[in-house]
Each structure stands twice: as C-alpha cells, then as structure tokens.
TrEMBL record:
Gene from which this protein is expressed: LOC108073320
Region (Disordered): 1-36
Keywords attached to this entry: Coiled coil
Record field: compositional bias (Low complexity): 20-29
Source organism per UniProt: Drosophila kikkawai
Start and end residues of each Fibrinogen C-terminal domain: 224-440
Protein name listed in UniProt: Fibrinogen-like protein 1
Length: 440
C-alpha cells in the first residue's frame, strides 16, 4: 500500500471517530440544553440532521483532500519517468506535502500526528533517494554526452580516413586503368608482332624451300681437299661453309689477298677490342668465339682438324696506329690435337717483312693460362705463372692479348704486338688477322 493510501485511510478513520464523538457529545449536551431551553424532540432532530449535513460536508472536504493527495502521488510517479523535469516535480511534491500537512493539522487535528510525520519523512527520504538517482542519471547522461562527443570526433576522423582511402582507391584505379590501357597496347603490339612473326615464318619457310633447291658444290681431290664446301647464291659472298673431315660444317670468312692470291680463310681477327672473350677460358679458345664480321677466334679444335688432314699455309697481316702494314707468311702450318694441348707443331718456311716472331712458338702448347711446363727444355712464355695468355708463345709476339685503343709501348707481353717489327719496340697494334689456305 502506498503512503498516500495510508494517509487517506487514517484521515477517514479519524474523521469517522471524530464524527461519532462529536455526535454523542452534541447529543448529550443538546439534551441538557434543550431541557433548559425548552426545545422539543422535533427541534432536536432537525438540529441533529443539520449537524450531520455539516459533518457530511466536512467528510466531502476530507475526501477531496485525499483525492488531491492521490493526484499528487500519481503526478510523483509520472514525474519519476521524466529526467528533464525531476527537480520541478520534487519541488511540487514538497509543496503538496507541506500543504497536506497544514490542511490535515488544521482540519482534522488528528492525535496521531507523529505517525503521519513518519510517513512524510519516509516520503521525503524517498524523494531524497529519487534525487540521488536523478543525480546519478544526470552524471550518466553527462558521461554519455562526453562519449557522444568523443564518438563524433572519432566518427569525423573515420570519415576523413574513409575520404583519404577513397582518394587513394581512386588514384589506384586510375593507375590500374593506365596499366590496363598500357597492357592493352602491349597486347596489340604483341598481336602485331605475332602476326609479323607468322608472316616472317612464312617467308623463312619459303626461303628454306628455295634453299633446299640449291646444291652445294663440293670440291673434291685425292689429297682430301674436300674440306671446303662453298654455298651458292649467298648474300655475303665472303661467307662460305667449310666441311671438316668428320663431316661437320661451319661458316667461315674468305678473302682474296692482293699480294698472296685468292681463297684465304680467316682464323683470327682483331680490330677494336669489341670481343671480351680474348683471355677467357680454355673451352672458349677450343671451340672458338666472337663475331665473324668483327673480332673472332676460329677455334683450336677446328685448326687441328684442318691442318692435320691437309697441308695449309699461314698468312699474318699486321697494321699499327700509324697505318703502316707488314706481313708474315709460313708455308706449313700445323696445330696439334687436344691431347697435345693444341701444340704449334710446325710453321714451315718463313717469308715476309714483319719478322719471323712466331718461330719460338713451335713445339709450345696453346695456353689460355700460364703455368709451369714440366718436361720442357725451353721457356715458352716470358711472363709470370698463372697469367692468362691464349697463345702459343708470347716471348716474341702475341696476337690474342689485350686490345689498346691507341699506340702504346707495352711493359708486359699482355697486348697485341709483333716483336721485331716497328723499330724493335713492343708497340700495341691497331689491327691484325691470321688467314690459312690449302697449300697448292
């Protein structure tokens, strides 16, 4: 039961008891007064009815007060749910309670005023509790407002980050689109190249079909002179196919020398230092390397197979940086086998104006790296052990050494030079070439 209901019950009980006592007192006093005043029973009944009407009006007022108290209680319960108007509600309740206390004290003069005060104190305590809860809720509201502000700041930051990411994504999409466009262009270029490749392949096939109709003219003789095979209808008449005794073929450059006649095959050429494999590994020198149109070494293995199956002569042409020329010619050039380390077996007789500087290379191995020569009675290389050479003997000459772009007096044998020529100085050469042909 609510405090207001208790108050209403107490008010009604008090009012009832007060009415009964008042009626009894009034009856007793009225009887004695009536007797003194000579009032009849009829008059007495009318007076009692008047008093009852007065009592009823007072009861109505009390009920009105109780109804007001009930309305105040309902208003208090309603105001509890509204956080914004709590303070006004509390003030209103306090005023209503004070008013009820005053009206109750004045109208009823109830003897148990202390009990009502206790109830009022309980209501006041309840109000204080509500005030505490209201304060707590206000604090929570304040915290929520702070968190809301913080969330708004975070949300703003997130929005900025999202904007930045969207900007980066847009840039990435632009770059991706550019790459896709470039890729599309590349695909188109590839398609064009593939189409061109197919067309070129068709042309090559057509050329191969035409090439198959050409015949190789093989020059044969009793002394195994079929080692050379010429290719007809070639676009480069100086490039010809050569057939080795083992049946394999290779391309070679041929020249006609004004002073020595036609049909000379180049086995070595140095002109500008464009080939860096000079001074390389032994396998490079064995198989050959370079570019036939520029610098190259034919290969020690091919030289062995050619010169040991037929007699060849050797022609060496030299040019210095003053454009002075000289030559050396040998009539029986022979290179040993791989088992013999491609030793310079023979040179034959010398002729020319450059000097017989290769003579000391006879019986020397073709070395691509300097080393001790156990079992040899002569020194085939003049420089320190383990220095790269790629030559038979660099004591008097070296045509496979380092290329210098200008006239240089060499302090070591690592260069292109020919010993006794050019005022007996070891000067670097501008160019040189070695050629061979079968001895007539």
């Amino acid at each position: 039961m609510r405090p207001v209901d208790n108050l209403n019950n107490l008010s009604q009980e008090s009012c009832g008891s007060a009415l009964e006592s008042t009626t009894e007192n009034n009856s007793e006093s009225s009887d004695s007064d009536m007797e003194l005043l000579g009032i009849t029973d009829g008059d007495q009944k009318r007076i009692i009815q008047g008093l009852k009407r007065t009592i009823k009006r007072n009861q109505t007022k009390i009920n009105d007060l109780a109804a007001k108290l009930t309305i105040a209680d309902n208003n208090l319960a309603t105001e509890k749910e509204k956080t914004k108007d709590k303070e006004d509600v509390i003030k209103s309740l306090k005023l209503s309670i004070d008013l009820i206390k005053d009206n109750t004290a004045q109208s009823l003069k109830i003897t148990n005023c202390d009990q009502h005060k206790t109830k009022i104190d309980e209501l006041i305590a309840d109000i204080e509790i509500l005030e505490c809860k209201l304060k707590s809720r206000n604090e929570k509201i304040s915290e929520l407002e702070d968190k809301s502000e913080e969330n708004e700041i975070n949300l703003k930051q997130k929005d900025e980050q999202i904007a930045n990411l969207e900007s980066q994504i847009k840039v990435s999409l632009d770059i991706t689109q550019k790459y896709e466009n470039d890729l599309k262009d590349k695909d188109e270029q590839i398609a064009k190249l593939e189409s061109q490749t197919k067309a070129d392949a068709a042309k090559i096939k057509n050329l191969e079909n035409n090439l198959s109709r050409y015949t190789l003219q093989i020059h044969s003789s009793d002394d195994n002179s079929n080692s050379r095979v010429y290719l007809n209808c070639t676009k480069m008449p100086l490039i010809q196919f050569v057939k080795l005794p083992n049946g394999s073929r290779f391309a070679a450059v041929f020249e006609d020398l004004p002073k020595a006649g036609p049909g000379w095959m180049l086995i070595q050429r140095r002109i500008n230092g464009s080939v860096t494999l000079f001074g390389g590994s032994g396998s490079d020198y064995n198989e050959g390397f370079g570019d036939l149109s520029r610098e190259f070494w034919l290969g020690s293995k091919k030289l062995n197979e050619l010169t040991t199956n037929q007699r060849y002569e050797l022609y060496i042409e030299l040019v210095d940086f003053d454009n002075a020329t000289a030559y050396a010619r040998y009539d029986h050039f022979v290179v040993g086998s791989h088992a013999e380390d491609y030793t310079l077996t023979s040179l034959g007789q010398y002729s020319g104006n450059a000097g017989d500087c290769l003579r000391r290379g006879v019986s020397c191995k073709f070395l691509w790296q300097r080393q001790e020569h156990n079992g040899y009675t002569r020194q085939c290389n003049s420089q320190s052990i383990n220095e790269r050479v790629g030559w038979w003997n660099n004591t008097d000459c070296n045509l496979n050494g380092k290329y210098y772009n200008c006239k240089t007096i060499l302090e070591s044998a690592d260069g292109i030079w020919w010993g006794s020529w050019n005022m007996n100085q070891r000067n670097s050469l501008k160019s040189c070439k070695m050629l061979i042909r079968p001895k007539p």
